[in-house]
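lol ok so funny story. i was supposed to be doing the assay writeup but got distracted and ended up predicting the structure for this chain instead. priorities right. anyway since i did it might as well share w the group, maybe its usefull for someone
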Amino acid sequence: MDDTIARIEAEVAMLLRLADRNRRTGDALEGTLDRSAYLLLGRLATDGATNVNTLAGRLCLDPSTVTRQVLAMEADALVLRGRDPQDGRATLVTATDRGRSELAATRAARAALYAEMLAAWSPDDRTRMAELLARLNADLDARVRGA
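and the output, tada:
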């Protein structure tokens, strides 16, 4: 294996580990949404009311996983489930006002944390990092989707 590829793999593994640790420890993200609720509400904020299968496809998850997440989020009053007016057999998931509010608060807390961590980086380095992460995510997504 190419040494650079091995280094990238190790750094991504550590990034995921450290991101999880930062979320679980410290005060910066205390009381914010967990990752699954954050991502699901983010999709709903972008897409509007959506059915579980569409959400699952966009998040690269099994529909049964998204259904469990939606049920938990509904119990926390973050989302509502209702009938699709176009197809009465289908169920649409919609973010509640509380869900949108908690999403905004979580986004602000995460942005503040990253702003603090990246304060010493040049604007060009931050831009390049954002571009490379977007490219990596797109390539990972394409691989999962078989594209």
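The two ends are 24 Å apart (CA to CA). The CA atoms of residues 51 and 92 lie 4 Å apart.
back to the writeup now i swear
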